[in-house]
Design a protein that fits this description.
41% helix; 4-stranded antiparallel sheet; 201 residues; 3 helices; alpha+beta
Length: 201
């Protein structure tokens, strides 16, 4: 009788133990399911980080402004021009780098809502904007540049139009001609001043 009573008394403990095992299995299954999305997210984040690092490395390997890239090439051709209303543009091209560089300096200030725009005229695809500035120096470029026929520099409004204005600050055809480089205005005016008195005499 006592043995039978003891046996019955132990049965709930066995049932509790079984339920505990079921709960543990269910809990571990839930935890495993919950961890799967986290692992998936970590995998995606890892891929993104690798892609960003690859872009950074690519940028470093092709580093330097495009203007410098063209100007520093072994086969660089450089032409200096004076803008109509002041400032200087140094244009460079390189066949080996397939690049064109544009370096603008000493740009006069503009009225509010105006900006300098550097345009590339392409053989087949029309025009593209290389750079723009409200008066700060520009160190920019374009690559690939094998189909560029000319470089135009204009003053435009706050919104860049689809094509350059006809009244350009400077316009240079490609290929560049180093022999056509222009000396700064100050030197030009100095030469003219020295020659004027002689002409009067």
């Amino acid at each position: 009788m006592n043995g039978s009573h003891s046996q019955h008394r132990d049965e709930p403990q066995d049932e509790d133990l079984g339920l505990d095992l079921v709960d543990q299995v269910a809990s571990s299954s839930r935890a495993e399911r919950n961890s799967r999305p986290k692992r998936w997210i970590l995998g995606v984040v890892g891929v993104v980080i690798v892609a960003v690092l690859a872009l950074v490395v690519f940028s470093l390997l092709n580093g330097g402004p495009k203007a410098s890239k063209a100007a520093k090439a072994d086969d660089a051709v450089i032409q200096t021009i004076q803008l109509k209303n002041g400032g200087q543009a140094v244009l460079s091209s390189s066949a080996s780098e397939d690049a064109i560089g544009v370096d603008l300096t000493s740009l006069p200030g503009l009225a509010d809502g105006q900006q300098y725009v550097v345009w590339a005229v392409h053989e087949e695809t029309g025009v593209s904007v290389v750079a723009s500035s409200t008066g700060d120096d520009v160190d920019a470029g374009l690559t690939p540049a094998g189909d560029v026929l000319a470089i135009h520099i204009t003053v435009e409004g706050s919104t860049i139009p689809s094509a350059p204005s006809e009244d350009t600050e400077a316009s240079v055809d490609l290929p560049l001609d180093p022999g056509a480089s222009e000396v700064p205005d100050a030197q030009d005016s100095g030469d003219s001043d020295t020659s004027t008195p002689g002409a009067d005499d």
